[in-house]
Amino acid sequence: MIDVPLRLLRWAVHATACGLLAIAVLGVLREGRVAPAVGGVLFGLLYAAGPPILGRPVAGRVWLGLVTSGWAVLAVVSPPFVWVAFPLLFAYLEVLPLWGATFGVTVLTSAAILAAAWHAGELTMPLLVGPGVAAVVVTLLALACQALRAEAERER
């Protein structure tokens, strides 16, 4: 019974990633920037390859490194890609042990804040607080999901 909400949450994260990515790709296409749009589509294909391999530790970590690198390039190239980082936070919490995930979430959130501020030309309070709050909420949600998954396995 607990599996259904967890599956729905996982699909909601993927749908959010696809939505943010589509917004970013369409935004750069509207500006006539084809190269970042192609990069965004390639990034989407790489992201889509992740769910089937997340259960395998080495493959999951390699995928996470590649996705993070791709995101970093896109985030520097165009502002709309910065926000694609937030669904990736769930991936950190799923792929890495808690200490590594916490470190990764902190680094990725900091990078998103810095990239957004760089594109905006200044660091504003919303650019600082918004991603920080999102990272805390994502982390708490992921930890709650892990606890629910563990409880469901104990019941079996």
Describe this structure in words.
The protein is an all-alpha fold. It has one domain (3-155). It contains 7 helices and no strands. It has helices at 3-30, 34-48, 50-53, 57-77, 85-95, 98-120, 125-155. The chain is globular, with a radius of gyration of 16 Å. The model has no long low-confidence stretch (mean pLDDT 89).
Distance between the termini: 11 Å
Mean pLDDT: 89
User: Helix and strand string, N-terminal first?
Assistant: HHHHHHH
Q: In terms of structural class, how would the helical and strand content be classed?
A: mainly alpha
Give the overall shape. globular
Low-confidence runs of at least 5 consecutive residues: none
Count of separate DSSP helical elements: 7
β content, as a range?
under 5%
* Largest β-sheet summary: none
User: What is the alpha-carbon Rg in Å?
Assistant: 16 Å
* Helical proportion, percent range: over 70%
Work out the count of structural domains: 1
Question: What is the gist of this entry?
Answer:
This protein is an all-alpha fold and 156 residues long.
List the helices and strands and how they pair.
Blueprint lengths: L2 H28 L3 H15 L1 H4 L3 H21 L7 H11 L2 H23 L4 H31 L1
Helix pairs in contact: 1-2, 1-5, 2-4, 4-5, 4-6, 5-6, 5-7, 6-7
Q: Main attributes?
A:
mainly alpha; 156 residues; single chain
